[in-house]
Amino acid sequence: MSHGPKQPGAAVAPAGGKAPAQHGGFVVAVKQERGEGPRASDKGSHEEEPVKKRGWPKGKKRKKILPNGPKAPVTGYVRFLNERREQIRTRHPDLPFPEITKMLGAEWSKLQPTEKQRYLDEAEREKQQYIKELRAYQQSEAYKMCTEKIQEKKIKKEDSGSGLMNTLLNGHKGGDCDGFSTFDVPIFTEEFLDQNKAREAELRRLRKMNVAFEEQNAVLQRHTQNMSSARERLEQELALEERRTLALQQQLQAVRQALTASFASLPVPGAETP
Predict the structure, then answer these.
(1) Residue ranges making up the domain that contains 169
(2) Residue 192 has pLDDT above 70, yes or no
């Protein structure tokens, strides 16, 4: 049986696979083999991608910190962590922070109920004290002024955002809004470039001032540390001198008592009666 020459467009069925189906003189490729290649490459690319760090949970609001307000209490578990963390860090100085937290978590889970209840009771007492202080703080003038300032900032932020949106949507000039008066300057003009140069010069000046203030702050911190160490040294010397003075007073009192006892039996000259 003779075989004709192979056509250049004919497809050969792969070993172990299905033969391609013929339809109207055209070869229909098997989709399964085409899909396996990209899946493997996609798997490798997914494995090479670094794990993204988790940020703040979406939809969860952060607690607002009240200036000059009472310090928020911590839970019993956090109190346990704060108490034991330094001990673990001293015992294992090379251990990273996540491992320390992991060890403390395991230790907390194995802690006796009586010991665990001690931390929980302390946290509850601190919580009740915080509630009392918070109620007293909410009745003070400082809290009222703080809430008024926060409300004013919120209103200003909303007004500035609405003004910017009106400017972008309605095509109004920046002069209509005090917060965006710089929009009056056309881009890439002499006035615009001069204004940018002036702002850059101002930024450079502020950076230099910031560096100078940081250096002064570092010098003041060193002076503060030196003064603190000198104060501690003087306090130690004062305590030592006080102890020496006390010892000398005791010795003086002992000498006085010895002299009084020695001269008690001796007659005083001129005190005898004829």
Answers:
(1) 148-183
(2) yes
